[in-house]
Structures are given as structure tokens and as C-alpha cells.
Amino acid sequence: MYAGLQELGVANGEDLKETLTNCTEPLKAIEQFQTENGVLLPSLQYALPFLDLHGTPRLEFHQSVFDELREKLLERVSAIAVEGKVEERYKKLEDLLEKSFSLVKMPSIQPVVMCVMKHLPKVPEKKLKLVMADKDLYKACAVEVKRQIWQDNQALFGDEVSPLLKQYILEKENILFSNDISFLQNFFSPSPKTRRQGEVVQKLTQMIGKNVKLYDMVLQFLRTLFLRTRNVHYCTLRAELLMSLHDLEISDICTVDPCHKFTWCLDACIREKFVDNKRARELQGFLDGVKKGQEQVLGDLSMILCDPFAINTLALSTIRHLQDLVGQDTLPRESPDLLLLLRMLSLGQGAWDMIDSQVFKEPKMEAELITRFLPLLMSFVVDDHTFTVDQKLPSEEKGPIPYPSTIPEAFTKFLQENRIACEIGLYYILHITKQRNKNAFLRLLPALVETFSDLAFSDIFLHLLTGNLTLLSDEFALEEFCTSLFDGFFLTACSRKENVHRHVLRLLLHLHHKVAPAKLESLQKALEPTKQSGEAVKELYSQLSEKLELRKPSPAEVTETPSMELPLPTVPTPASR
After folding, report:
1. What ranges does the record give for the region Disordered, renumbered to this chain (predicted)?
2. Between 404 and 543, where is the model more confident?
3. I want to staple 157 with a disulfide (CB 3.0 to 4.6 A). Which of 150, 318, 365, 544 is the partner?
4. Pairwise CA distance, residues 502 & 533, whole Å
5. CB under 8 Å to 232, separation ≥6 — which residues?
């Protein structure tokens, strides 16, 4: 409590104890101690007895004076930090720190010492080491001081950042597995600016401040974790962090990050959920502008393009372009904007391989993707148009054209072997589901059972699919639809992929009342958790079972309803006359 006072020649509690132990007249000793160490203001000597008369303890008075002086001192320190020439003000602060640092462990004085350190751009290394070595001091110091400690202690900075990164991933997963299923509000609904206001991004932004070294450390952590886990949410955080610093106009960092302008332009596209022609040209300019010898920047650009929000925007734009090309009778290879979207999708999807191999070269685009797969998707769009027009014709003019039910073998093969084709194919299926196109959905659904790296069973796709399926809620009453969706798709992976099990239970929690009772009963049996199932699956299954139990008719309803027919009373026949 009194640490450091002796070094400054100020008496403390230990001195008073020693004085009282060795004196013959304690009252006189106390009076002398008060005179020597009290507030040296002559006029105050007459005021203190007045306070005594009012029953105000001396401790309360001195504490009040002390608190007031501390506040004035804190204000003065903050003022010194912005007054006069830079060298002069920092010299004053350094002198003040030298005089006061011995009191840093004294709780009442500590805020002043910490305030002085906070305003110094470079705290002496010796003092930083003393702060770092003491847990309580380290915890109490301002983030401005911690930055100076962190920049030379990557392990300590990693310990501070790690819980935040875990929290960020958990928050993303909680959104994907949320029980609130809707096609209107999904994982991609919040705007980029809204997402950047999240707790983790804001904390990391504050921790980094204007320190380029700390920013580079965070990026290195994100790259390492992305490589270790393949979790694409780290790519989202990489982009969000840069744009959060951009919002605060931290030019010290934004000007040295070669991805800044590219990320800024892409951020605007993500906000609109579409890459227009003007921004497409800007993005192409950035990619074409990577000079020889600077290829390493492609690693960071690919990570930014691997962000699910970027992939979502590029894939949606691709589907929209394909629909436009159908109306224009134009082939995919003749559209520069479409080719750019594919180039960026390819770069994003190849991020992990590029960073892992450290070979910074754009992935080569397969010609068949453009010449065979995309025209195949366009033929599906034409099939839909043809069928829709045919259905609108008067009955006598209708041709006997049933909706195509077979899938071209090439489509299934592309989804299995080509990552970009698989991503675009999945987004096309999401598109037709959102259009409530049941025929097209049931036609293409079998192709999803086996896809590249099981992308059709990824959390992001299943989150979007379950949301869009709410638009086809009435179809869940049909046996054919449920058999195709559950038995033909979901249940093929439930036993080996717990995340699929969770998404199916989420969907049934939302739409169980639409499913035929017999089908619902068989699904309930098929989805029963095993001993190996995680707590999340067991909890969801328990919730579903409770809901289904509530829907069962009560015994009173099941018993035979008594007849409503009342017996007619017998009326005596009038006597014949």
C-alpha cells in the first residue's frame, strides 16, 4: 500500500508505527507526525478544528483532497501530452515518469503513473520489463503501453489475441447453426459495416492501433490458423480487420497493406451483393497490376477472395451473368466480366493451396469449365423457360413436354471433380430453390450426394439451403419430395457428418408441422442420436421430440366421439274418432 514512498522521502505507515513504538508521549508524537506530513497550508490549520466540530473525520478530509489533487494531476498530464514542441513535452513526461514510477504499485497513485506511461510513445525498456513481469501492473496498464510490450513479445501478444480469435469462430458457427431459419435473414444478411462493429473486430482494432508490427502479427496468426484448420472464417476476419482500420482512417497501416484498395473495392461489391461492370474493371486492374517480384501479394489477395462473403458475392454475380447471357444468346467465353468473376473465384478457392505451397501464381483456369460446364448450366435455365412457357399455353396448344428428370452425366462429374464448377453449381441450386422451382430442384438434387470435397455438406451451403427450403414448405407434405430430400440427400451423410445431422434437425424443428405424420415418424427414428453424437445434436433432437410430443392428440381426443343424434321422443297417436 505504501510501496515507494520511502524512496521519495515521504513518511508512511511503517514510519508512524516506529515513531509510536519508540516514543514516551504518543499523543504528541501523533500531532508532530500530522504537522510534518499534513497539507502545508497555514490557513488550513484554523479550518480543520471546524471540521472536527462537525464530526468529519480527518481521513475523509484528506482522502477528498487527495482525490481532487489526483484528478487535477491527471488532467495536467493529459494537457502536457499535447502542449508545445514534441521533444519538450515528451521530456517533461519522461522526467515525471522517472520521479513517480517508484509509486506505481501504490493503488491511489497508480492511475497517475499509468497515465504518464500511456502518453509516452516510447516508455523506457527497463520500465516496460518491470510492468510485464508483474501481472497486476500489466493488467492495469493502458493498451497504448501494452502495444509497446507486445511488439517485442509475440508469444504474449498471441496469448491476448487467441481467445478473441476463438470467440470470433464460435460466433460465426453459432449463426450458421442458429435455430432461426429464414430465407430473408441468413448468414450473409448483415452489411460489411455492421459486421465490423462486432466485439472481436473492434477489440483487435483497438489492440493494434496504428502499430504496423502488431497488424502484421495478427495477419500471420490468421494465415497460420487458416493453414492449420482450413477454416474460411479466418479469411473473413482478415478482410474485416483491414476495413475496420480503413473506417478509422489509420493510414499508417492502410497505406502499407498492398491489399487495401482491392479489399475496399471488393467490400463495396459485397455490400451490394453484386460485382458491377465498373468495379469489375477496378478489381481486374488490381489483379493485372501485380508486378514481377511482388507475386507474394497474391497470397493475401487470395485469402481476401476466400472470405465466404466474397465467394457469395462472386457466385451470385456469376449466376446473374449466366441468366443475362441466355437472354442475349451469348456464350460464356464471350463475356469478359464473367471470365473475371471466374478468375477471382478460382483465386479465392485456391487460397489454401497457394499459402501452403508458397507458390504465388494464379491457378490455371480449366477451359472445359467455360466451354462445357457453364453452357450446361445455361441449358438448365433454357429448360426452365421452355417448361414455364409451355405451361402457360392454352391446353390445346400445349406440347407433350414433361419436365426433364435426368441429369447430364457431365454435370455430376463436374460437381465431383472441379471446385469452381461445384461452387457455381451449388449456388445455381440455391437460386432455383429460392425461385420455388421444385422441378429443377428435384432434378439436380441427386448430383449433390457426391461433390468436390463434400462441399454440398458444408455448413454455409446447408445453412443457405435450409433457409431457402422454407419457401417450399408446402411440398414437405408430399412423400416424393421428402423421400428425395431426406432419404436421397440428407440421410446419406448424417451418420458420418455431425454437422449435417444438426442442419436436418434445425430444418425439421422449423417445418415438422408440414411433414406427413408417417414420414415424420420414420425421420425421427432415423435421426435418433447415437452414443457418439455430440451434445448439440442431442439437444436439437430433444427439442424436436418435445415438439412432436406436443402435437400428438390427447387420449380424450382419440376416444370415440359420442353420437350427436338425439332419440326422438315417442308421441302418442291421437285416438281415432
Report:
1. 551-577
2. 543
3. 150
4. 10
5. 226, 306, 307, 308, 311
Predicted confidence at residue 576, as pLDDT, reads: 45
* Closest by Cα among 547, 427, 511 to 182: 511
Residue 65: is its pLDDT beyond 90? Answer: no
Q: List the single range of 221-225, 362-366, 393-397, 404-408 with lowest mean pLDDT.
A: 393-397
The 3-class secondary structure across 174-188, one letter per residue, is: HHHCCCCCCCCCCCC
Name which residue leads in pLDDT, 510 or 566.
Answer: 510
Phi, psi of 307 (to 5 degrees): -55, 125
**What cell does 529 get?**
442420436
Give the three cell numbers for residue 483. 423421400
Per-residue model confidence as pLDDT tens digits over 373-382: 999 999 999 9
Q: What is the mean pLDDT of residues 507-517?
A: 94
Coil, strand or helix at 525: helix
- The Cα-based distances of 349 to 62, 107, 241, 375 in angstroms read 67, 54, 21, 21
Q: Which residues of 137-173 are buried (b: 16+ CB within 10 A; e: fewer)?
A: bbebbeebbbbbbbeeeeeebbebbeebbeebbeebe
Q: Which residue has the cell 439437444?
A: 539
SS (H, E, C) 394-451: CCCCCCCCCCCCCCCHHHHHHHHHCHHHHHHHHHHHHHHHHCCCHHHHHHHHHHHCCC
The span from the CA of 310 to the CA of 195, in Å, is: 14
Rounded mean pLDDT of 450-467? 97
Cβ-in-10-Å burial (0-12, 13-18, 19+) of 560 comes to exposed
Q: In whole angstroms, give the CA distance from residue 350 to residue 372.
A: 21
Question: In terms of C-beta density within 10 A (0-12 exposed, 13-18 middle, 19 or more buried), how is residue 222 classed?
Answer: buried
Note the pTM of the prediction, 2 decimals.
Answer: 0.86
**Cα torsion 39, 42, 45, 48: sign:** negative
- Residue 465 above 80 pLDDT? yes
Residue 273 and residue 283: Cα distance in Å, rounded?
Answer: 15
Alpha carbon distance, N-terminus to C-terminus of the chain: 125
HSE toward the beta carbon, residue 100, CA cutoff 13 A: 23
- Whether 558 has a pLDDT exceeding 50, the answer reads no
Find the helix or strand (DSSP H, E) in which 78 lies. Answer: helix 58-80
**Cβ(33)–Cβ(19) below 8 Å:** yes
DSSP per-residue string spanning 462-520:
HHHHHHHHGGGGGGGGSHHHHIIIIIIIIHHHHTT-HHHHHHHHHHHHHHGGGS-HHHH
Average pLDDT in the chain: 89
The dihedral over CA atoms of 487, 492, 493, 499, expressed in degrees to the nearest 10, equals: 0
- Phi and psi at 349, nearest 5°, equal -70, -20
Record the cell numbers describing residue 53, joined without a space: 466540530
